[in-house]
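check these tokens.
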Amino acid sequence: MTIPPTNPSPRAATGPLSAPSAWNVANALTVLRLVLVPLFVWLLFRDGGAGDSNRLLATAAFVVAIVTDRFDGDIARRWNLVTNFGKIADPIADKALTGAAFIGLSILGDLPWWVTIVVMVREWGVTALRFWVIRHGVMPASRGGKVKTVLQAIALGLYLLPWHSVAVVHWTAVAFMGAAVIVTIVTGIDYVGRAVRLRAAAKRPLP
């Protein structure tokens, strides 16, 4: 009696699932966010940073760029488009955008320099940590890091508005910025611990 061949599973028939290509919609949105940074800076400093229309346009460019951060992450996770390029480029794009906003606002005198310095040291320090451990593994954004990004985005958006000097808007912006600075420092310390543990685990001999 001839035994009919067993039907192979779809996975066996097609072979192991290949890693998603870096050329995808999610990464394209990340690159778009990087491209919007110089446009945002130009709008912010046009006419010496004066004029309500300039500040509104700069705020709009900032908001559009920030929104792409939400969409690229959702698309990447939903459609299995998470790549190492995206894990590295996404936080760099975020830091380029928020860094331009922090520095620009401080140059214009709207935000104290100590706030910008504290945030920049943490942000680029974490980026350096990611490259420090990249041989041992990719360190993606943590949940606390995402909360930090949201708080920074809201605070910066309020500071960018042309009427941020109005009392209600001003103190709301100050409250969000204060929360953002605290979370920024706390998550920065957490990233240092994660990086140290990741390197230690990679160097630990196998049993």
